Amino acid sequence: MLPTLDLTAAETDGQAFRTALREAAHQHGFFYLGGHGIAPAQIDGVLRLAREFFGLPNAEKARISQLDSPAFRGYSRLGGELTNGLVDWREQIDIGPDRPVVDGAHGYWNLQGPNLWPQRPTGFREAFEGWIAAVSEVGVRLLRHWSASLGAPAGYFDDAFTDRPATLLKVVRYPGSDDRDQGVGAHKDSGVLTLLLVEPDSEGLQVETLDGTWVDVPPKPGAFIVNIGELLEVATGGYLRATRHRVRAPRPGTDRVSIPFFLNPALDATIPIIELPPELAALSRGVEADPDNPIFSTYGENAWKSRVRAHPDVAQRHHGITPLGPASAY
């Protein structure tokens, strides 16, 4: 069972909370977070709107197809994404900061652009813009506590996040299946940290332990599931390691709605490296060296790597990138 942390505890005993935060991330890479201060009504509201959107006819959802977005925004239909070259069985909307396209963009600067917002259900955009603001604040608070717990000033990472952070929100539905196992394949997140909201009583998320065992991570009422991304692995020299995780396709007759939020710095920000205290540095495992998954210290490079792999159709259609494997998930 993953540890559970309460963010309100940081107000009464900051040192104890920071130690627990550091140890949870070092040992597991994942934990539950309660006491975050986001009202239950706001949580219920975004989950309800997600359900309403996914209940729309396919033709209406396709009006904001990601295939029409060079910035990889909008709706991906069932089977429209890949992980490790295999088809993920989920539908989703990708939402990032609404910013103008960069003229003459190359590489990761193509990830900047406008969102594709659905016209229905009513209030969808306003609710999710409010949600992004709320979870961003929680994520920044966590990051400041992490910095302090690792021997750095609390604001050590602030500069990378104060100017045009490249956050990403996904609104996701996994339908039940009797002939597919992969909801989303095993992967690590490419950014700094992830706050995941999952519908109560849903199933499917699994986390890989240090010994290679996959364990189930069910939702807890009112709590986020939090995990660290590859950039925190870089920032800590591998003292914190991004953990592989996956979602199994739900059982037939059931489905799963989740809303992961990825806290990321600016596209061109290079994550600063923390000089760990000797007692922590001695426990560092080093940044994982995987030739099939290089980890870059500049966030945009790491994100571009992930996006063009996950959505080869968009990469090929808008950016002329020919995939090494199957050209399409569609």
Automatic annotation (TrEMBL):
Protein origin, superkingdom: Bacteria
GO BP annotations, alphabetical order: antibiotic biosynthetic process
GO MF annotations, alphabetized: metal ion binding; oxidoreductase activity
Organism: Gordonia oryzae
Keywords in alphabetical order: Antibiotic biosynthesis, Iron, Metal-binding, Oxidoreductase
Domain Fe2OG dioxygenase, residue spans: 164-265
Protein name, as recorded: Isopenicillin N synthase family oxygenase
Keyword tRNA processing found: no
InterPro entries documented for this protein: DIOX_N (IPR026992), IPNS-like_FE2OG_OXY (IPR044861), IPNS-like_sf (IPR027443), Iron_ascorbate_oxido_reductase (IPR050231), Oxoglu/Fe-dep_dioxygenase_dom (IPR005123)
Pathway annotation from the record: Antibiotic biosynthesis
Family in the record: Belongs to the iron/ascorbate-dependent oxidoreductase family.
Bilayer-crossing regions: none
